[in-house]
Amino acid sequence: MSETDQDTTEFIQLLTEHQRLLFHYIHSLIPARNDADEVLQETNLVLWREYHQFESGSNFRAWACTVALNQVRAFTSKKRAKRPCFDTETMMLISERQEHRSVYFDSRLDALENCIQKLPPRKRAFVDQRYRLGCSVESIANQMGSSVEAVYKMLRRIRTTLHDCVDQTLSQEGLG
What we know:
Layout: H1 3-17, H2 19-29, H3 33-49, H4 60-79, H5 88-118, H6 121-132, H7 137-144, H8 148-172
């Protein structure tokens, strides 16, 4: 695979991974879902058009959110006469808050992944079955040879363990 193909593949993977985050970011600035969808599409077009400017290994989320914010500004300036929109100062405040929350939730997600890896294999299997694969509790009970009630109790204990582990991890990193 050529370097250009590899760069394109990496970019597409990053863009795909960040779609939900970008949508929520845009939607936090533009309340109407249809409008947020429209701005997301415009953002994706700009990101694709400008992907050669993105430096591999740098912060894709920050770059993509900056592009999204610029697209939100362009959209709201076009629509300002037709419908009420946030002013630029309000959008900037919301944008800063969303970026802070995004970093916080990314830290929590990283801590959760680490905490899941620390679980004993049987408990990790429960988590994988229920949350990664989306299996029903009844199905898990049948597969694991347990009662439905026992699976519910096990999942509750695992969630408590993971919650405590995440809180402790973030506290140790000064983020909690």
